[in-house]
Specification:
Blueprint lengths: L3 H13 L2 H8 L3 H15 L4 E2 L5 E2 L1 H23 L9 E6 L1 H6 L2 H11 L2 E6 L5 H7 L4 E4 L8 E15 L1 H7 L6 H6 L2 E3 L6 H10 L7 E3 L3 H9 L5 E4 H5 L6 E2 L6 E10 L4 H17 L2
Parallel strand pairs: 3-4, 3-5, 7-8
Antiparallel strand pairs: 1-2, 5-11, 6-9, 6-10, 6-11
Helix pairs in contact: 1-2, 1-3, 1-4, 2-3, 6-13
């Protein structure tokens, strides 16, 4: 058996970022935190923590971190069911991509919080990276583009987000007078969300079948990103509802070349009423909003 105190200590160090901060959170000395971690590592014969700033779990540590959070969730649900934890609701950490947060998923989160009394910690990340947070044990569920389930989790298709190359009519007339050609795409400024955003690059390759490097702006904010397109800063991939919301301000550059991104819901594979309630709400909302 792995002592619950040891798991809690490992979780505290990862959550707080250092041994000193974990000691303050646990109301013990830094020496006690260090001794607990050393004893756990010796007991399992594995290095569990990268003692960096902030501290990070090793792959072996991520397994135990996930176990610690699962036990914490089930314990909190049991106490709530017994009426012994009324002051604080069950806490659910979930990783969600920016476009889902900005468009369809917030009403689902609101409904489950109101009905179940849960407390939500939403971690925003790219849909290509949210599953990694689930694997690391820092979240309990994720909206992700990864179909293959993270070990210890289950995966279900939510639907597809449909993106279309979009710009203002003035931008299109200036940069694409002869249509969306490879030469025009190489010259026209493009807007990326951040350096990990590959949607525009995928569209470029689907049209040109080659690697081109146009001028790039990077606007890391869902609302600001769409506003930048509407202001004519560049072209970018926008969702159908974003185009429909501004029919006089935005045009589709390549009507027959949409880009579809499948989204999956992955969550811990354990019996949790709170987590299952969240999953049900997310699936219902996705069925209404996604293709």
């Amino acid at each position: 058996m792995i002592p619950a105190e040891s798991l809690a200590t490992l979780q505290a160090v990862v959550d707080e970022g250092s041994l000193d901060a974990a000691a303050r959170a646990l109301h013990v000395t830094p020496s006690a935190v260090s001794q607990r971690l050393k004893a756990l590592e010796q007991r399992l014969g594995r290095v569990l923590l990268i003692r960096s700033k902030p501290a990070r779990a090793t792959p072996a540590g991520e397994v135990l971190l996930r176990l610690a959070r699962q036990q914490q969730l089930l314990e909190r649900e049991a106490l709530a069911e017994l009426g012994l934890d009324e002051a604080r609701g069950v806490e659910l950490a979930v990783a969600i991509n920016s476009d889902s947060l900005a468009t369809w998923i917030m009403p689902a989160l609101h409904r489950v919080a109101e009905r179940e009394g849960v407390l939500l910690e939403v971690v925003r990340d790219d849909q290509n990276d949210t599953a990694a947070r689930l694997a690391a044990g820092t979240v309990m569920a994720a909206v992700t583009s990864e179909e293959v389930a993270v070990p210890g989790c289950r995966s279900v298709l939510l639907g597809r987000m449909v993106y279309r190359a979009s710009a203002t009519p003035e931008f299109a007339a200036r940069w694409f007078p002869d249509g969306v050609t490879a030469a025009a795409l190489a010259a026209a400024p493009v807007i990326d969300f951040d350096r990990r955003d590959d949607l525009q690059t995928r569209f470029l390759r689907s049209i040109t079948r080659q690697r081109i490097d146009p001028p790039r702006h990077r606007i890391p904010g869902a609302a600001d990103f769409a506003d930048a397109v509407r202001l004519g800063l560049g072209w970018a991939m926008l969702l159908d509802h974003q185009l429909a919301a501004h029919p006089d301000e935005l045009v589709e550059l390549a009507p027959h070349k949409p880009l579809e991104v499948p989204l999956y819901w992955q969550q811990w594979d354990l019996r949790s009423a709170s987590l299952d309630a969240l999953a049900d709400e997310v699936r219902t909302a996705a069925a209404a909003a996604l293709a």
